[in-house]
Amino acid sequence: MGKNTMMKRSVRIHAESTGNDAFLNLIPLLVGNVGLIFTKGDLKEIKEEVAKYKVGAPACVGLVAPVDVIVPPGNTGLDPTQTSFFQVLNIPTKINRGTVEIITTVELIKKGDKVGPSEAALLIKTWNKAFLYGLLVISVYDNGSVFNLVEKYAVGVTMMTTLSLAISYPTLAAAPHMIVSSYKNVLCVSLETEYTYPQAQQVKEYLKTEDTKKEEEAEFEEDDAMFGLFDD
Description:
Blueprint (H helix, E strand, L loop, with lengths): L3 H15 L24 H10 L1 E4 L11 E3 L2 E2 L7 H6 L4 E4 L2 E4 L3 E4 L7 H9 L5 E4 L4 E4 L2 E4 H19 L7 H18 L5 H31 L4
């Protein structure tokens, strides 16, 4: 880990000294908060080992919560002058031995919600490191080639979905496409026959309305053509 400019410079120097320009493929990846791990071991084991290490951090204002934040009941260690702060957040409290105590469990922030100023301030006051942060493997470099893990995964899912649809074998990835295709077939049968069901009936009524509009437009155009014969 280090400054991106220094890491890029180190990569360039190594490429020049070894005459191996393949290392230059690493430079476009050194953007943002990233680092390099050098290994000759099994990549799966390295990834699992890296994922073990996470550190807690307080929630920052404007950050989207990756998990639900639950404040458990108990003594906060804050003095009674802080009770108004808890009241703003609708957190029930009581004074116990000269400190503020939270009475019940409170769901402070829901997953996907943005952290507000009051919520962030409360977590800081109570020393609550709500979110865990760790390293995430985003790319793999090997012999001059860079492999994007997300892209590789997406390609694999696409190939599996295509194969599943071709042989009509249901899989988790292909199931939504199969359901939509089956629904379209059922809908087509309903539109061509008198058999109907609530969803198909809505489509039939819509198509009937569209056909009526087209007929009215056609009649209007014919009338215009007839009147045009008597113009100058």
